Amino acid sequence: MCPDLWTIFDFFGWLRTNEQSIAIWLEGIALVAIFFLELKEYRRQGRDKKEQREEWVKQMAIMQSQADAAKANAEAAKLGAQAVLNSERAWIEITLGPATQPDYQDDAQSVSSGLFECSIQIENKGKTIAYIESVQIGEDTTTGIIPEEPVKSFTQSFRSLLGSGQKQTVRQFNADSGFTDGQDIVNGTSIGILRVIVKYRDIVDASILHQASAVYLFKKSLENEPERISTLSDYK
Predict the structure, then answer these.
(1) N or C: which end of the chain has fewer CB within 10 A?
(2) β-strand partners of 93
(3) 188 contact partners, CB below 8 Å, separation of at least 6
(4) Position 102 confidence tier, pLDDT thresholds 50, 70, 90
(5) How far apart are CA 151 and CA 195, in angstroms?
(6) pTM here?
(7) How does pLDDT run across 177-225, given as a tens digit for each residue?
(8) H or E element, residue 234
(9) What is the phi/psi pair of residue 209, to 5°?
(10) 92-101+116-235 has which fold?
(11) Alpha carbon of 207 to those of 99, 108, 146, 200, 204: distances in Å?
């Protein structure tokens, strides 16, 4: 027999002898190949998921940008509409004017005490008619923090109309009768507070109750005109 045939027979004999070992090796090689194939697929899927996530983030950013723009446009439209309403509505301004005496007051009563006195006036600075509901006037003294609301006050109902540009006197004020402890104000141990609060509506939107307030302070004098505190006065 040819030597090559013997070699072939020996190889097949070796295969039969080592069949189990060869099977294990082949199985191992197959498992390694499968592992690398799965690893490659996992990496590919990871790249796809990363790209999908980045695309999702971009889409969310675009949607958020559109939502922000829509919100900004809505706020701008709301502010524009409110600006139009504010330009047309009634606005009440509170001022202190010269004191006036009733026609029926006799000469004996008209003698001035020499202390500050004035008329409290309201004026409609807006373009439409104001419906004045009430005027609250507080006359207080304090030795420390100024209260946010008047402690001693009275409210007068008006239920009257005030046209654009019209002015109305709502009350007379006299520092002599307004503060019971006026001497403490003169001595500087307390501060006198004159607070005026006007509540009104306008024909632009009668459902809204507006408010104008003004705060005046008397410091170490009841003769001089009080100081108006702009930070405590407001318009709503």
Answers:
(1) N
(2) 123
(3) 219, 220
(4) low
(5) 10
(6) 0.61
(7) 878 777 888 888 888 899 999 999 988 788 889 999 999 999 988 888 9
(8) strand 234-235
(9) -95, 115
(10) Immunoglobulin-like (2.60.40)
(11) 35, 48, 32, 11, 9
